[in-house]
Write a structure and sequence with these properties.
about 5% strand, elongated, alpha+beta, 31 helices, seven-stranded antiparallel sheet, 7 strands, about 50% helix, about 550 residues
């Protein structure tokens, strides 16, 4: 904050009026300006004629406003923000007397800069900046690691972040695939929102494991099943191979049988045994594996195991395996009270097992709050017990009941649940499993419970009538989730969300990076009271 106040005090001395601090968003960031200035500037003229009044008029335009970043005066703790200023003079502002600065026109076409150099100040005066940016990115693709390190080491202030300008190039529709493929050698953050097949194909085949992991670590890239398989096969780390296989399965990719064979034959066999798509013919050998962790894992596939294998696991010599088998067995066979009492840790039984009627009634009626809390989400609980817990004196127990998938909406609306609208919420697994069911999405989109509607909004695709309903939802988090996750979100709602949200850690490109976000008609926001809306005019027509 002190640095910001010092900068605001410095600006009038240079003949400038402070307008606002501007977060980079989709703007060309100051870091990129520092880099271009360091790479192509020439030593300053002793008389200072390189940055003459004509250049400053071109920078400031008719309104006299432009963006500036000053060395040593960081906004928000870093050098990645611009300060928008107004210059009313007709000559040269006093910025040239500062230790270093980068200035950018509001239309992003003109850049002026002065940075320290070994032989004195170095100045830059450039027009056609988007073209310069593409040239700089192309040159970066041919740099050696040593060259690149020297350039970034010379950038003023804290270590520069290439992700800012790389993301700008990577999200540009005008950038050709060849340029983005070259950019993979520099920075991979732009892959988060990338859906170009050629670029993703190059990423999964890249020799650098950090680049290969880029598309696998994010949700948005649309890797094809073939790309997922190539990614898994090419990964040298056994543990990461299983991790990528797990990600692929979570996205509905059917891995080939020989790939499962390879994963199970490797040193991460225990992790590979947990893959949900593992073919059933592997289960007998895994159930007899010497590693008790693997035998316990097989119990999660209880319905796929033959009766002799089940009996063997229930009589296993390892306590952990026997417990896992016992819990799996009692998802269909009621668990008597004696078995429940003998469990070393009863929580999992309370959450997932079918209990005998007497045991269930006792726990619902006389169990402590911790036990009732675990029972509230148990899918095997009887309707009678669910009705009792729906009237529990504890708010969190009733709230857990209200999210059960076996309730109809009339029953759900009758539960007195408590929801803090500001609390972080996650997609309900049972709703996510129904994302491909259009009838279920229509029904759940009308739910009285906001957490269910939020979970519906997380679907990548939804029927038009469901999108229309959620886009008008009274809970603005529903609208936010629709903007972040649904590719069918409408432009008008995306613009509304942009007024109060400009991206999260998990969805940094949304809403403005959404394919349906308005790309035309944005100049009308040039005089908007809110700075974030004026920013739209910088990149719109």
């Amino acid at each position: 904050m002190q640095r910001r106040e010092e900068l605001h005090e410095l600006l009038p001395c240079a003949g400038l009026t402070f307008v606002e601090d501007v977060r980079p968003g989709s703007l060309f960031p100051p870091e990129a300006g520092w880099r271009i200035a360091r790479g192509i500037a020439a030593p300053d003229d002793p008389a200072g004629e390189a940055l003459d009044a004509e250049w400053w008029r071109r920078l400031a335009g008719a309104d006299g406003e432009f963006l500036v970043a000053v060395l040593g005066h960081r906004i928000g703790g870093n050098d990645s923000r611009w300060t928008r200023v107004r210059y009313a003079g007709g000559g040269v502002p006093g910025l040239t007397g500062l230790p270093g600065f980068v200035a950018l026109s509001l239309d992003g076409q003109v850049l002026l800069a002065q940075v320290p150099g070994t032989d004195g100040p170095r100045v830059t005066a450039l027009d056609r900046l988007p073209e310069r940016l593409e040239e700089a990115a192309t040159a970066a693709g041919s740099e050696t690691e040593t060259d690149r390190a020297e350039v970034w080491a010379a950038v003023p202030g804290r270590p520069a972040w290439p992700s800012h300008w790389a993301k700008g190039i990577g999200s540009s529709p005008a950038a050709p695939d060849e340029l983005l493929i070259r950019l993979l050698d520099v920075e991979v953050s732009f892959l988060y929102g990338c859906d170009r097949p050629a670029v993703l194909d190059a990423a999964v085949a890249h020799p650098d494991p950090r680049v290969r992991s880029g598309p696998a670590d994010t949700f948005r890239p649309k890797l094809t099943p073939g790309q997922w398989v190539r990614l898994v096969r090419a990964e040298p780390s056994p543990s990461r191979r299983v991790l990528w296989a797990e990600h692929a399965c979570a996205r509905g990719v059917e891995l080939p049988g020989d790939l499962y064979d390879d994963l199970l034959a490797g040193p991460s066999r225990a992790q590979a045994a947990e893959l949900p798509g593992l073919p059933a013919h592997h289960l007998p050998s895994l159930a007899a594996d010497a590693d008790p962790r693997i035998r316990a894992t097989v119990c999660a596939r209880w319905e796929d195991l033959a009766a002799p294998l089940r009996e063997r696991l229930l009589a296993d010599t390892d306590d952990t395996v026997r417990t896992a088998a016992l819990l799996a067995h009692h998802t269909s066979v009621p668990m008597p009270g004696a078995v429940f009492a003998a469990l070393p840790a009863p929580r999992r039984a309370l959450e997932q097992c079918r209990l005998s009627p007497a045991l269930e009634a006792e726990l619902v009626r006389d169990g402590d709050a911790k036990a009732r809390r675990a029972l509230a989400a148990n899918p095997e609980l009887s309707a009678h017990s669910v009705a009792i817990l729906a009237e529990d004196p504890y708010d969190d127990i009733r709230s857990a009941v209200a999210l059960r998938p076996d309730l109809n909406e009339e029953q759900r609306a009758a539960v007195r649940y408590d929801v803090d609208p500001t609390t972080l919420s996650h997609t309900l697994p049972w709703v996510e499993a129904l994302h491909g069911d259009t009838d279920a999405m229509r029904r759940l989109a009308e739910s009285s419970h906001p957490l269910i509607r939020r979970s519906v909004a997380r679907a990548r695709h939804l029927p038009p009538d469901v999108v229309e309903r959620l886009a008008r939802d009274e809970d603005r988090t529903v609208r936010l989730f629709l903007a972040e996750s649904c590719d069918d979100a409408p432009a008008e709602m995306l613009l509304e969300v942009w007024r109060w949200w400009d991206g999260s850690f998990t969805h940094p490109d949304r809403p403005r990076g959404h394919p349906n976000f308005p790309r035309t008609g944005l100049l009308r926001y040039a005089d908007a009271p809110a700075g974030r809306m004026r920013r739209l005019a910088l990149g719109g027509v």
